[in-house]
User: Which sequence fits this backbone?
């Protein structure tokens, strides 16, 4: 008999549909009434909070301080930038009025603003404005700050977590005395992201830099980590930019140097967004729902009592392990098999069902999410080994993700762009090209097939692929 | 000789000017380039982060889950509310365009929206929209959620932290089956705020409810905590509203009850904003700068090495105490007396200056912020007593704040509103009136003098005052 899965759609049949179903059935987010926006529900938000907390600590450990800059940026400031920065993006939400008024029984905007305000699509401009005041002398440098905030970019085609009109992110911004320092800083944050992705998110992507035409507008170097999703498409997980003096010039970030001359600061920026939650779903999920690395899983263990009189025993289990992991007892009035499948879909690493049999034998019936095998384990053994079970869970996620990156990458040296296109006709793959010259010559035609140059890895390998 | 203070303006001479100077010299925030907005700088933001972390834990402990709703709300939704809610506020930022375009060499808004979007002035409406989907049956209730986010309200007269066009806050929203449950919930969150203000912020305000005309539009009951500032004006620190079924009706939050009938949910909301940072400055500050309760102080102890060769000893002090408090060594190239006064202005509870003399005698020269006395203490004694010093710091802040509330409150039973006005001619005070009937009859005329009815305390005492 064919195995039945907890999701209706199988990822091999329709990856996009599977993705939305995985999000919905794990209760991560809803479509919002505002076009292109989403409501991040408690379970989804809790994952983001866990990511934030890991990242925030690392951002602070690497010398950055948090602060907060305004959401609304006077339109004038963009005038400056549009003159300095090629590829200046124009899709932004513009505030033109400051009042609602009733006219003919309907609310309409009134109180037009003299200078319209733009909702930040990123904060380089308004932060640069402050940096230009704060950086007077070389003694004021480096300035290394970060903010957690919301961003609005007018996207026509949106998709839950991956591309939404509003998203949450962290944006770091730094200003330095010398190019060397700024370059080192952008490498440090790139490395920080890489380590967090590997260690905490079990995501083993490709660390590289963007080719020139794919860089952030105004950047000298854009560092990226490209992840391969299970459908063989690439996803840019995060970026660290070395901006040279481009933004300093647009924002007039000048300081008096050690020799007394007036110089432009070298700036960097780095960011990661709620999109990473979508990447986790598409990287680790399976046909039974999402899977979560333990660092960010809201619960590591869920205990489902099958009768009321086993609650005390469930409490005992919880006490035994709650010092080393996040445990939740779900005693809600709902059929326990339904609960089990809910938690499977939510990607809880270990799901325990406790009935009278377990109480009598002082044991636990534990389902491990990654193989869905039910095991009967003595309470002692379970309590003693819980940390090792969770480690195994993460190792297995990492093993699968490393394997995924291996199997989805094909070496295409010497092939024409047409041949490459044909190779990808039935299945998306990442394409590696050893020589950058060859990559350059393929770039334009591959682009026409929707295959873009994702990055040049640290070993100098160019990686192409379809992407999110 | 008259004692010189670290701030130029004394609070008794010009409280408003003193306030801005205290913020500026503690490096809490800057005026932003965006009118009415501020840049919260690292030291100020760190205070907010500490408040957030305490409050977030308590919000979770009381059963609420964090989530995130859109910044932008379709204008249509406000149409509904304006019909249901008296006193509907209209000053809001309205997004009408989604693009910037160059016309005659200047960037101008383009891409007009069919339905304008409003930047949330609070999220009752858009959260209510979700609640109406989530609450189908009594089994789905209660729903208890919270979000940390930014809010925009078009304010004409703004003041750092106290009233800014954009501010940060936490807004909790809950929906319940019965009025009893919802009322109990609004009391729980009111109590939660009260305890946090007392225990963590050393703020001992008046716990009460708002008189009818001062309630949040649409609320049945608005619980408040009113704080007395050092200039004798009142400040509303936070609110918890019981909203009855008013918002449920506007948003159609209906559920199938236990008896099968369709009923409106009873909702509540509760919030506290970055304004509390302003309240802390105006409550605890003095003519030498701000003062901070230890729960939220970025540093408890700052160590200033007076020469380079004492750094090792400074490290030793840090190691001795860093397990029980937040210590920072400031080895920057700057005159140490300047540093000392910087940290006085920043309200660091204990400032240690370490020179060769201290190293030789294995002692510490410690300045306690609240009395600015310098003490020479042996390293052992200092290390052993650090927790108790910090407790004393908080006790003293609390003692002063309790005293402040006592001395600034005058009993005015039987006086006319004119007499009360005259009493406040030279000095702001809070006014207490024992009988609610008397308060009601005074209310309108006092209002003309700018003296408003702040709350009715738990003991039934009506409190009036000028306010922020």
Assistant:
């Amino acid at each position: 008999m064919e195995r039945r899965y907890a999701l209706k759609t199988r990822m091999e049949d329709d990856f996009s549909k599977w993705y939305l179903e995985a999000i919905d059935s794990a209760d991560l987010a809803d479509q919002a009434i505002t076009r292109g926006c989403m409501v991040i529900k408690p379970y989804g938000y809790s994952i983001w909070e866990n990511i934030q907390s890991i990242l925030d600590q690392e951002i602070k450990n690497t010398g950055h301080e948090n602060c907060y800059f305004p959401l609304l940026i006077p339109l004038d400031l963009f005038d400056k930038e549009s003159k300095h920065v090629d590829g200046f993006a124009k899709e932004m939400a513009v505030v033109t009025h400051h009042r609602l008024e009733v006219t003919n029984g309907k609310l309409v905007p009134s109180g037009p603003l003299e200078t319209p305000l733009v909702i930040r699509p990123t904060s380089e401009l308004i932060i640069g404005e402050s940096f230009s005041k704060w950086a007077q002398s070389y003694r004021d440098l480096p300035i290394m700050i970060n903010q957690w905030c919301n961003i609005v970019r007018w996207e026509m085609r949106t998709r839950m977590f991956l591309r939404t009109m509003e998203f949450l992110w962290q944006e770091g911004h730094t200003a330095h005395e010398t190019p060397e320092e700024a370059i080192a800083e952008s490498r440090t944050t790139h490395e920080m992201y890489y380590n967090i992705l590997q260690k905490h998110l079990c995501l083993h992507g490709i660390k590289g830099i963007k080719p020139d035409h794919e860089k952030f507008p105004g950047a000298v170097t854009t560092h990226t980590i490209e992840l391969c999703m299970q459908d063989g498409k690439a996803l840019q997980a995060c970026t660290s930019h070395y901006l040279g003096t481009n933004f300093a010039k647009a924002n007039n970030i000048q300081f008096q140097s050690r020799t007394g001359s007036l110089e432009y600061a070298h700036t960097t920026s780095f960011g990661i967004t709620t999109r990473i939650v979508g990447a986790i779903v598409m990287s680790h999920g399976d046909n039974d729902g999402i899977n979560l690395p333990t660092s960010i899983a809201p619960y590591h263990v869920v205990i489902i009592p099958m009768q009321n009189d086993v609650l005390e025993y469930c409490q005992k289990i919880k006490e035994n392990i709650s010092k080393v992991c996040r445990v939740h007892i779900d005693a809600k009035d709902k059929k326990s098999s339904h609960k089990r499948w809910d938690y499977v879909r939510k990607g809880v690493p270990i799901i325990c069902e406790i009935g009278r049999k377990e109480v009598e034998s002082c044991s636990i019936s534990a389902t491990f999410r990654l193989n869905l095998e039910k095991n009967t384990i003595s309470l002692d053994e379970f309590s003693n080994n819980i940390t090792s079970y969770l480690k195994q869970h993460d190792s297995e996620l990492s093993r699968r993700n490393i394997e995924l990156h291996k199997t989805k990458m094909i070496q295409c040296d010497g092939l024409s762009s047409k041949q490459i296109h044909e190779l990808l006709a039935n299945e998306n793959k990442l394409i590696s090209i050893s020589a950058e010259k060859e990559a350059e010559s393929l770039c334009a035609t591959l682009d026409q097939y929707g295959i873009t140059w994702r990055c040049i890895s640290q070993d100098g390998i160019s990686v192409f692929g379809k992407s999110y």
The first strand of chain B starts at residue 29 and ends at 31. The CA atoms of residues 157 and 349 of chain B lie 33 Å apart. Residues 15-284 of chain B form a domain with the BirA Bifunctional Protein; domain 2 fold (CATH 3.30.930.10). Chain B touches chain A through 66 residues (CB under 8 Å).
